[in-house]
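Data deposition worksheet. Section B asks for the primary sequence of the deposited chain exactly as it was used as input, without tags or linkers unless they were present during the calculation. Section C holds the resulting structure in token form. Section D is free text for depositor observations; keep each observation to a single sentence. Incomplete worksheets are returned to the depositor.
Section A, Depositor: J.P.
Section B:
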Amino acid sequence: MLALETEVALPAAEHRRRPKRCPIAEQIDQAAALLADAKQPLLFVGSGAVGARPRVLAIAEMLRGAGRQLHRRQGHRQRPPLSRPDRRSPGTSLWRDTDVVLAVGTRLNQPQMRWGSDRDLKLIRIDLDPVEITRIQRPALGIVADAKPALAALHQALERRNISRPSRRTSSRR
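Section C:
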């Protein structure tokens, strides 16, 4: 079968831009409340957050939370000081000590499938794809929106809460 040849008619490519999905203010406020109350927050950021790096770093700094490195394919060559190594590193202890996870633009397969989840772990998902948000488990809060406007709104909501935490910088490096 692989050696057969035939004529194929391909459909014309559509170059429509998807409209940006803005976050719902109530959901952003709920996310800010969960993160503000978190004792050990974790940011898990994937390639769906391209272009939102400044907001990710600002939120990480504000929460003093450990975070996952933005993938190199996104063009982020420098590792932020609060970031952890990529997915190949064992993250079970970091995941186990976390009480609130903010997952932005990521499938979050490895942590959810390999590291598990308990009832006390609150998961906040921000993703453009509503199916992806609930693929493995239903999060405490799912926000269907583009990462950039959602993180901008979340950053403002956290600023209004005037969060101040001691630095976790030294404990987040290995």
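Section D:
The helical segments are 25-37, 53-63, 92-96, 109-115, 130-133, 147-161, 169-172.
The first strand starts at residue 41 and ends at 45.
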